[in-house]
Fold this sequence. Notes:
Elements: H1 2-25, H2 30-39, H3 48-51, H4 65-80, H5 82-85, H6 102-125, H7 132-149, H8 151-156, H9 159-179, H10 183-227
Helix pairs in contact: 2-6, 4-9, 4-10, 6-9, 6-10, 7-9, 9-10
Amino acid sequence: MVLQYILFGLFFAFAMFSTNLIREKVKGSNFKDIVRITIFFLPFLAPAIFFGLPNFAFASESGMLPYLLAIGCAIVALAIQYKDYSSFLRKEVYPLLPPITTKAFIGIESSIIGSAIFEEIFYRTYVPESVFWIECIVSGGLFSLSHYIHPLTRKTFTVRSYIILFLLSIAWYYSYKISGTLLPAIIGHLVYNSSSIVIIFRRYMFSRQEAKKLASEQKKIRKHSGMYT
């Protein structure tokens, strides 16, 4: 059992090192951005080479309970953290934020959605089986630690954020264990990430509207300038 946990720890270290390397080195040109988005989460699938992929079927061994658990806990977590992101739901905030390009929008949204899939595969599926509470601590602990290692979340997360992530991780892990399928955990993770998905989308749409207004104004200026030359 100890060797299994050591192996899982090595997989975790490899995933953290590889994703950080990809994030820092594979960027710049449009081609590199496409490559980064494509391969970024692949290190999380390294254990699949030895242990295979989990079950993604909709049917659950425990009926709808795992879905209610995974989604319900995500909704509760969003409600607890509502004050943290509620300001970004107001239109008047977006003029104060930097604009988001199409390339950045695709990259950010792909990362948010991809994390809900590939992180669940790694942190729920490949935890070595032992005593259930140990499995929960390992799954939740490494999941929270991965967000602390990420430089962006380390700057913005509070102690409460990490506690919520840890508890959510346990709930999603339990939903996987009682259902026999990873789908409830993935859906729950997507629900929890929905606030970020919506905020980034709204920022992008506002940026596009502002870019169109600016282009229209510049066109009018050029037109009027041409009339007086």
